[in-house]
Protein 1
Amino acid sequence: MGIRQTGDLWWKNAVFYCLDVETYQDGDGDGIGDFKGLLRRLDHLEGLGVTCLWLMPFYPSPDRDDGYDIADYYGVDPRLGTLGDFVDVMRAARERGMRVIADLVVNHTSVAHPWFQASRSDPESPYRDWYVWRDEVPKDGPDGIVFPDKEDSNWQWDEKAKQYYLHRFYKSQPDLDIANPKVREEICRIVGFWLELGLSGFRVDAVPFLIETAGIDKPGDFAPHGWLRDLRAFINRRRGEAILMGEVNLMPEDVRRFFGDEDGDELHMCLNFNLNQAMALSLARGDTGPLLHSLQTQPSIAPEDQWANFIRNHDEWSLDKLTEAEREEAFKAFGPKDSMQLFGRGLRRRLPTMLDGDQDRIRTAYALAFALPGSPVLFYGEEIGMAENLDIPGRMSVRSPMQWLPGPSGGFSTAPPDKLHRPIVGGRKWGPSAVNVADQLRDPGSLLTWMSGLLRVRRATPELGFGKVSVLPVESGAVVALAHDWEDRTLLTFHNLGEAPVTVEAKPPGAADWEGLITVLGEGEAKLAKDGTVTVELGRYGHRWLNAARPGDVFRR
Ligand code: GLC
């Protein structure tokens, strides 16, 4: 980098916040969240310190997979508002210094999409070859079923077409034929459309499925990764700052491929499922082993690319990369009942319930997630420690309405609780009377207050987004000790995954030349000895972030 480009590479130091317009804030009292409601809640997001919103699908949809089944790529679902309302939100977000990205779901459409309707109804239709049709279920089709609760095949017989169509997800989501240049042309048009309306990029849904050609009769000369490179080049021609954040839940080396070759010219970001799953196991065991192993074996990425780290997302907490025994351990710790698990591979709970509401543990888990190299992604409600609602089936358990105020509908809507799009979390411990934004905003000791502090510190700590991380050896197997170096700054982070308070000693390289340590997060004693030994006292599930004070450093905090 010739000139300082840190500001240009905004995604390297961003804090993302994923929300579903449908469950965030109802602005018109019909029980369904909408853009008018979201507009009123942007101040909350600004106050929290979010720098980029990730909007889950808001496009017209029959809603058979919570909007991940799209019937029109160029509009807003009428239940959520209008394009005008969307643009109001974009403008108001920009005014508050927040960027917005949105889900790009183009592996498949909804069966209700006019393209599919035309495709299935008429072999001569120009849309016939936009989908993957086969006379028989082919032997070279893709392996594995994504939603084994509802599907037992990736192929569905269609009476109208008298052929089978490919669907990697639900049968109501037929796969587009990515090898068809017209489909790819259309994807560019869709992406270009939303970039014109101000989006700063996309969270790209199901990327490995999107570019795979298994099952496609004649893939021709379609080059999957060449196309991802073209897509990145295209969005950056249209809008220099736009990014692609990919959902790529594969083994580490396979994920690396999706960033592109050494130059990193495909996806700008990948959601870090491997580190996320290792973290689950480490939290469950109170042992740093799995997390540090994952961190140390993580492939390196190009300087302009970035990992997106998260604890929970809108799907189940997938633990599919763990061994069966490890997964069982995590299930035992965090979701022992069958009703808390999903597909035998994940947990359908949010973090606070899994940690029994233990504030020390919850905070240290988030501090840790924010201290991992990359940019953090929050899922709505995490800032107040919201629970899941296990009465909502499947993965939707964590997509209950946001809790703004005490009261039966939680300030999400003026509609009564039984009229809400999805049932709100109930009960005295986790319902809106106990867990809501308004109360926590006034309480200096609340999770929300603490979380805003975490976001403020994270934003002021580019060492984490841009720096080089190294593991500091310490004696305790419960303490993750990391050094983050960037330019002339060093941040040390300590996270105690165990219940027992512990004092650790670390020897960061070069620390003998430092003048002292400045605590930027967490509480307790931290000492720097003349020989460069750092001694940190950590409480039960405690954490500490420390800045090295170097002689003559005027920017020290
Ligand atoms: C992704 C989304 C999930 C959705 C699926 C199909 O995995 O995260 O919520 O159901 O894609 O679009």
Protein 2
Amino acid sequence: MICNHRKKLTLRIAAVLGVIFLCGISSGRAAQQGAPQHSRPAATPWWQHALIYEIYPRSFQDSNDDGVGDINGIIQRLDYLQSLKVNAIWLTPIYPSPLVDFGYDISNYEAIDPLYGSMADFDHLIAAARQHHIRVIMDMVMNHTSDQSPWFKESRSSRSNPRRNWYIWRDGKGPGIPPNNWQSAFGHSAWTYDPTTKQWYYHKFYAAQPDLNWRNPEVQKAMFNVCRFWLDKGVAGFRLDAVPELFEDPQFRDEKEIGGSNAFGDPNLDESRTSNLPEVHGVMRALRKLVDSYPGNRVLIGETYLPNIQDQLRWYGTNRDELQLPMDMQVGFINRLDANEFREKMNQAETQLDGNMPLFVFDNHDNPRSWNRYGDGVHDAQIARVIAALLLTPRAVALMYYGQEIGMVTTPPKTKAEVQDPVGKVGWPKYKGRDGERTPMQWDSEKNAGFSTANKTWLPIPASYKTVNVQTESAAPDSLLNWYKRLIALRAENPVMRNGQTVMVDRTNPNVLSYLRTEPKDGPTVLVAINFSAQTQTIDYHLRAHGISGSGVTALLETAGMQRRTDLHHMTLPPFGVFIGTLQ
Ligand code: NOJ
């Protein structure tokens, strides 16, 4: 289990981690690419019930033996992704980058970093993925560029450069004193002094990631052109990195200290002047228009760590004209198995988002894996099944992170010298950075877990790979991987598991989370019951108020150890057991 300061830091970094997006008009070819073989009626866009799979390309599959994953490696693994029934893959950034933040510092938005392959490889990926019924979503970092971007190089060259105002430059308060108290999410002041022009530039993240000035219309124009470039290539949309951070207070007022300090030793600030400013919604509406001008239901996904459901709703747009899928981080990052909290948050997502589709996520490249965040050290394997059920059985788009489906564990570096993630260097030893959740995918029990034939991989292979790997788990009927596959199949095969409302029942039970999936035109109601405790639980359901008069229930899927109860009045769930069944 992670300790408190790490949880807090995780959330703070989370609060600042971004999202994507994009759009465009285009040729018939791009139209086909946006709407692959599985095109559906406009009323049900493909993303509405999608399973999206996040790939951290450095760590998925290495095809050229340099110890770093690449585009051709992803192509080699498309059969696997298809077997998982993934509808789209989101690739974290593969653009040219000095890799200070492993790609989230982009120096050229319209090219591929040679480390990952070529533009021809990328085009091949789009085409090959389409053959596998998989769409490709790009990460789009609009908040900041690399300090090696030609835009920033020009901007910093002189105060009168035409690109000066593309970034946020200010005078300090005095010699060596930054313009205000704003802090970087990666530790310490968010301002760096540039001796050439004797001003400070703002960076929400690393100093090598200067923030773009979104109050300058030329910035929007340039970034939207970038989006068009990729939409024309046929990407299915964008994951918008750190998108709530686009705007800052135009008066540059200090933020309020809210007490305590973070893992970097900085005071905690309320972030009211640098995050989630209302101006961002105008940009989202414009971006959505751009995306909608392309055929094929291109999608905008937001990296939106938001404090409450009201803010979450705003990101869909008052007229459903902003993001289709702002990530819901409130459910997946509760970080403890508390049935009451899950009931409340999931119910909010169902009832307070104006019918919009929530996007649930438990794992990503910025946070310790759910295995570790939710595990109790004793029942981790069962709890991983609980997490899978929480992700895949409510009415929500599901976002998975590579390795989640086999139970990869967070494996942080052992010494500071091993740390790759810059933020881990700043935060060491309190915060060890994000390497632990970015270790190479575990494909088999051979050398380097089948990830690479290099002598050294960019991050070490976790010791668990001998048993925790795709090959071994594919062959074991009761593996976590097969549990995921069964849940995914259940979603795919039962319309009510896609469309049905999520209705909480047995609402006062502190140990078992129970909900119905119900939609009369889509067949019988389904009951999902999840035991959040390490004790056996027996439940007596009374569902007459929900139109269920009988007490019969037929299992569709359940974890091991169920007593095959078929009576709603005496349902016994083993510790961390999951039951999914059809009601009569
Ligand atoms: C969010 C990304 O997910 C994270 O990895 C990155 O460091 C920050 N945004 C800055 O781009």
